[in-house]
Amino acid sequence: MSNTHTPLAPAFFSEVGAPSITQIEAAAARIREHAVVTPLLESAVINELTGGRILFKAEVLQVAGSFKFRGACNRLMQLSPEQKQAGVVAFSSGNHALATSAVAKLLGVKATIIMPADAPKTKVEGARDNGATVILYDRHKDDREAIGAEISRQSGAVTVPPYDDLYIMTGQATVGLEIVEALADVDVVADVVLAACSGGGLVGGVASAVRAKSPATAVYAVEPAEFDELARSLASGKPERNSPDAKSICDALQVVTPGKLTFPVNQRLLAGSLSVTDDEVRDAMRVAFKHLKLAVEPGGAVGLAAVLAGKLDVKDKTVVVILSGGNVDGDFFAKVLGG
Amino acid sequence: MSNTHTPLAPAFFSEVGAPSITQIEAAAARIREHAVVTPLLESAVINELTGGRILFKAEVLQVAGSFKFRGACNRLMQLSPEQKQAGVVAFSSGNHALATSAVAKLLGVKATIIMPADAPKTKVEGARDNGATVILYDRHKDDREAIGAEISRQSGAVTVPPYDDLYIMTGQATVGLEIVEALADVDVVADVVLAACSGGGLVGGVASAVRAKSPATAVYAVEPAEFDELARSLASGKPERNSPDAKSICDALQVVTPGKLTFPVNQRLLAGSLSVTDDEVRDAMRVAFKHLKLAVEPGGAVGLAAVLAGKLDVKDKTVVVILSGGNVDGDFFAKVLGG
Q: Tryptophan synthase beta chain-like PALP domain: from which residue to which, for each copy (chains A, B) (predicted)?
């Protein structure tokens, strides 16, 4: 783990399999046609509550409601004409489904999306509304990667993985690039950046951009308490697994084990991984509603949850929290607000 | 009413009592230190639903959760040192209270706020949290302007009216200036801009900026169905009054009659005024939550409600909808989502 202020040489990133800053800048230029440069928001009340300066990178305002649009856009824009003709297949807990189907629609590419049967209905319906063919699977019994591979074999469709892919991680890294660039414009260096972690593509990509451009900034992952595979894997030095009985309201942050490509990157670039409980996440969703006026889904609120619950010392620090997604069912959100 | 594409001479604005573009640009420069240049957001789904290109000026992301911060900021920043010492008094249904108290706190000025006893609790508590002294009055019995005048007489505090004030209207006008400038950056001219109307400071200010900088753009007010005093006043040519029994979920949009300063401005600069029912507003709040990921209060959602309910032909048009505020109680919002 690297949480010091040491400048990192370009070679370091390629050695660990991380996207280079050149690749990230190229991705940012590529996706600019379709993706939103999301704003950094700030609330005086949240600053007072926490004692820090907390800036929010509002990826809930991204196309298709999450940062996932960036990776999918970066991948699909680099398909060959033949690949575009054959279409794409993606497996996803939801946001990657929405993102891939949204990009596919924009580019006129046929998309097949494999989603867990218990995904939020706003995510399943959204993918269908984008014109994708949705195949539901049982999260506890079926192997989504095998289903995807079979579809790809039969149709020639290109698989668009949710995180273990350099195109995808490079796309997600543009979140980090935008953070550093926006802060540089106002002569601010963040002490900390917090990103949600499931497969690790977002936090790994963000760390690749941030550590290259702003070596004094520490990047932390944030995970749901029962899906803290990265925290345990960083501690043990090898990929650990979550219990098959693990539960969380963060539907977007449920993987079994760290990604093959993303884990070495996160191992070398992150300052650590924090974890938060469901109650802490609900509290963060209410605070984001009240003080930021944003609909943040559970998995998108873990960074704010970590700050509010004091999982990190933010006093007098500048902390950027990525609000990574806002695709949450209205009835679930209503229950959180009522609680 | 002027809904043609005629360029308007600068003298025209001063004749009707509207802020000049020079005053608006000066206000924009003045408040930049504290106010957010809010983003213009777009949803492919909402575009498809409506057949137009609908851009959302997200004033819910403004400091203190509504456009009202702009006017209050423009006013308080121009207080003399003696006036700052004496403090300010404001009467408000809520958003102007939050805004004035937030600016007062930033500038170290004492604020007394007179609010209706039935204002949303998030607005009353927010003003208190900002350090203001809050005085509650009965919307149906008491005269808030008289209460304010008495406090001002006793303490020497400067009254900060919610709309009938050139400083305030000029501050609100910066919303319109930002819209035109952001669109000019991407070579787009809006066909229509929609702004909520209560006292008329927002829509009058916005029209002053938009009609000066973009004469081909029509500006419409949007009002709650039972508080459509502006629509009726525009039709009759004189200030009409709302029924004392009028009801609306739009707590922010309940005035008795158009403002003395704002009505002549709106009479000359607006293309008209549309009105929407409570059910149309609830539907708009749900759409904004689902597709924009924003918490929009009832009064902030009337423009979107008008578009979704087909109150205006938006097919193949570029329409800017100002989402003017997001200060809504969680329990009320939960009920709307559940409905």
A: 33-325
DSSP character for A291? I
The CA distance from A211 to A290, in Å, is 32
Interchain contact, B65 vs A39, CB within 8 Å:
no
Would you say the CATH fold of B68-159 matches that of B10-67+165-338?
A: yes
Fold of B10-67+165-338: Rossmann fold (3.40.50)
Domain ranges of chain A: 10-66+165-338, 68-159
CA distance to A52, B135, B139, B147, B157, per residue, from B153 (Å): 40, 16, 22, 10, 7
**Rounded distance between C-alpha atoms, residue A290 and residue A45, angstroms:** 10
Overall average pLDDT of the B49-53 stretch: 97
Q: What is the dihedral of CA B225, B226, B229, B235, to 10 degrees?
A: 60
One-character DSSP codes across A138-184: -TTT--HHHHHHHHHHHH-PEE--SSSSHHHHHHHHHHHHHHHHHHH
- Residue B191, helix vs strand vs coil: coil
**pLDDT (0 to 100) of residue B3:** 45
Look up residue B167 and give its amino acid.
Answer: Y
CATH class of A68-159: alpha beta
- Catalytic option among A20, A43, A66, A93: A93
Residue A33, judged by CB atoms within 10 A of its CB (0-12, 13-18, 19+), counts as: exposed
**Tens digit of each residue's pLDDT (9 = 90 or more) over A161-212:** 999 999 999 999 999 999 999 999 999 999 999 999 999 999 999 999 999 9
Rounded Cα gap, residues B136 and B117, in angstroms: 5
CB nearest A326 (choices: B129, B293, B333)? B293
| Six token digits for residue A287 | 């605070």
Q: Tell me: the pLDDT tens digits for B66-103? A: 999 999 999 999 999 999 999 999 988 789 999 999 99
Q: Exposed e or buried b for every residue in B16-38, given b needs 16+ CB within 10 A?
A: bbbbbbebbbebbebbeebbbeb
| ipTM (interface predicted TM) | 0.94
Q: For residue B279, which amino acid is it? A: D
Catalytically annotated residue among A20, A43, A66, A68: A68
Burial of A29 (0-12, 13-18, 19+ CB in 10 A): exposed
| C-beta atoms of A293 and B60 within 8 A | yes
Strands (E), B191-252: 192-196, 218-224
For residues A70 and A175, the answer to whether their CB atoms sit within 8 Å is yes
Q: How far apart are CA B254 and CA A178, in angstroms?
A: 41
Closest to B122 (Cα-Cα) out of B147, B93, B100 = B93
Question: Which pLDDT band holds residue B273 (cuts at 50, 70, 90)?
Answer: very high
